Amino acid sequence: MPRVKRGTTHVKKRRKLLKKTKGYKWGRKKLIKVAKTAVLKAGVHAYTDRKTKKRTRRALWQIKISAFVKERGLSYSKFIGMLKEGKVEIDRKILADLAVNHPAALDAILEKVKK
Questions:
Q1: Distance CA 2, CA 22 (A)
Q2: CA 47 → CA 41, 58, 63, 104, distances in Å?
C-alpha cells in the first residue's frame, strides 16, 4: 500500500479554521487548538441566539400591538381573542407592522372584529 502524505489537506483544513476565527482576540485567532474550541462555541451560541431572536421579535410584536390596542380601550389578550372568534388569521408580525405604519387599517380590522 502506498504512503499517503496529507500536507495540502492538513494546511487547507487549518487555513479554513483560522479564516473562521478572524476578528477573535488573543490566541483564539492564531492557535489551532484554542481556535477550534472558539469556533465550536461560537457555532453553539449562534444556534441558540437564532432561536432567542425569534422569541424577542415575537415579544416586541406583542408590545406594539398591545400599545395600539390599549389606546382604543382594549387589552391585548381580549383583542387576540376577538381576532380568533372573528376568524381573522393575521399573524402578530403583520399586526405589529399595521399598528406602527398603517393604524387606519388596523382600526378597520378592530371595528370589524368588535361587531
A1: 37
A2: 10, 18, 25, 38
